Amino acid sequence: MKFYVTTPIYYVNDKPHIGHAYTTIAADILARYKRLMGYRVFFLTGTDEHGKKIEKAAEEMGVSPKELADETHLKFKELWKVLDISYDKFIRTTDPEHEEAVRYFWKKMEESGSIYKGKYVGWYCIPCESFVPSSQVQDGKCPNCSRNIDVIEEESYFFSVERYKKRLIELIEKGDFVKPDFRKEEVLNMIEDLADISISRLRERVWWGIPVPSDERFTIYVWVDALINYISALGYPGGSLMDFWPADVHIVGKDILKFHAIFWPMFLFSVGLEPPRMVFAHGWWKVRGEKMSKSLRNVVDPFEVSSVYGADTLRYFMFREISFGRDGDFSEEAISRRYENDLAKDFGNLVLRISKFAQTNFPGGVRRLGQVSFPDISTEDIFDKWNESMQKLDFSGALNYVFHLISYANRYIDAKAPWELIKSGRMEEAENVVYACAYLVKLIVFMLYPFCPTTCKKIAERYGFPSLLDEVSGLKRDILGYDQVFRISSTGVLFPKLFG
Ligand code: MSP
Hints:
Structural class: alpha/beta
Mean pLDDT: 96
Largest sheet: 6 strands, parallel
Strand order of the largest sheet: 3-2-1-12-13-7
Helix content: 40-55%
Shape: elongated
Oligomer: single chain
Bound molecules: 5'-O-[(L-methionyl)-sulphamoyl]adenosine
Low-confidence stretches: none
């Protein structure tokens, strides 16, 4: 019962934006969900600090690359705090242990006979740190980021791919290695055209990186360096956390699928390690249909959004609004609509009206005093479907089940009208209805917790079931079982009116 989830490691040339937040929140949702279900989880994130892109950014700012990295990586850490990200380790590629692991890995690749020296003549995109096949270049622009790119010509070490292609194709064809399924074809096509991979840069051109161990005239290609973070963080080669390998899932953006679903498994094959179990590629957030970019001044700042709406709202919004894997469009209107309708009105009000009513009428606790049944739905069924969706990383699907239950609970309390029962002196019946409502809130809070951890913890406290949300490995819970009593105090308003 162990689970290893990773985010990409982020470049430190600039501060984090909403796209970085998205990938990391996804990994956090998964990590929290798995911990809730009793798994021993290792959740890794970090920063990618070497290479030309960082070297160049630092030079433009008049600082050293290390100074830039030291400063920018802190902004990522700060954001993860604001967004409640429960990572277990934050790796930096300038960590000496990581650098050591990269040198070791390189030597292993060399020993396997997969590396040879040649000459690279072709295109290179600095923003993407990517060698671009000429078949994909149009008008001198990078197919990934559309920026102008240069031709380089230099001596280089290459990784020879032929030996590993067949095994990789089998891996992709037979199972869940590349997700969502609609990305499989795209990856298979890329393998068809795949040439040997250039895995070094001349040191006189790119000095900010790890030197090739046997030939210091070269710097190890930054993507080789970066990908190895997923095992160096576990203490590769001999570290005690290596039992977490292979990773259960690398969550990445669709832009870097090639590196994770093709390069990385091939490198791993060459050193005799297992490939990750899954690479999940999510879509891109745009703004009014356009890519976010500094020059368009449309980059969404996650610090700002969370300071207005709260981190839980941002976390919820991003995973309710679009299906995980597809592109999405970010707008103030859309997030405030989700805040007001889903969170404040449907969810917040439900929790508050039940807690207020319970506190006023049953201050000593709410007991189960009779049959508890829910006409028209099966809570077991909803829970199972939520669980299935979570396992598949179908986060919007999972949230749909949660909100289905929320709207059911609102209808349930209206139909049962416990306030009427009290008026006519039927106290026990009223108490039983409130018990049933609190039971639904308990289920809802459990299912919503990975998305909105702060709010859900607060509710669990006030409803008297704080340990429900403990993230303890090996913990088995009877989620659908009935408690003896709920001791409820008012939750206060959870999602206050935003603007006046
Ligand atoms: N350093 C490499 C990753 C190395 S992993 C071994 C890198 N870094 S990055 O900072 O440019 O971006 C990392 C990830 O941020 C992207 O893969 C993607 O997951 C996410 N996003 C960046 N912009 C995004 C959007 N506009 N929308 C959604 N996610 C995007 O690539």
